[in-house]
Inverse folding.
């Protein structure tokens, strides 16, 4: 309720009781009554730091062993040195569903002394910076017919690649990374099976 003085335009006096709050206001920067309550939770912080450390260590260990494993598995198969991949070319075409497929065709020669029953290849697609953006592992598919369409079949004990023989092959990719630099990917032999 306003007094007559306030109605007349005179300044109102400050009432100290209006500034007092029934609940205590927080005092920023002032020490709290109990230092035990304000300590940060050490156990959850230690668990979080430990988890981050474990993830970093695993990333370093498996990141290094993964790159070495690729090189080691290519070097493990001694018969791979007897295979020559020549004249690789690339093409694209739409399949019956209207999706674009990418093909790599070439020739493979068995320069060894054994029948080749199976070949597993690794294909590395790179970006403009030379980074691997897609890594595929495929079984080698030999071209069996070209008319009325190209048909392929894998090597097998009943249809091997004999010593000294050269055959055409085709690899099919339903999806290639949009970051690919459109250059011919690296093709390497991972594993072979001989008889």
């Amino acid at each position: 309720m306003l007094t007559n003085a306030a109605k007349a335009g005179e300044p109102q006096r400050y009432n100290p009781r209006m500034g007092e709050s029934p609940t205590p206001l927080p005092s920023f920067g002032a020490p709290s009554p109990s230092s035990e309550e304000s300590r940060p939770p050490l156990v959850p912080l230690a668990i979080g730091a430990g988890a981050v450390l474990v993830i970093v260590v695993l990333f370093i260990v498996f990141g290094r062993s993964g790159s070495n494993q690729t090189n080691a598995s290519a070097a493990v198969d001694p018969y791979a040195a007897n295979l020559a991949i020549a004249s690789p070319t690339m093409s694209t075409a739409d399949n019956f569903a209207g999706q674009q497929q990418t093909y790599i065709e070439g020739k493979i020669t068995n320069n060894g002394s054994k029948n080749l029953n199976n070949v597993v290849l690794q294909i590395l697609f790179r970006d403009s910076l030379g980074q691997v953006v897609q890594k595929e592992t495929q079984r080698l598919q030999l071209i069996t017919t070209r008319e009325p369409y190209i048909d392929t079949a894998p090597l097998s004990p009943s249809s091997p690649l004999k010593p000294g023989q050269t055959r055409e092959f085709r690899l099919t990719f339903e999806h290639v990374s949009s970051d690919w630099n459109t250059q011919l990917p690296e093709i390497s032999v991972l594993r072979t099976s001989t008889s």
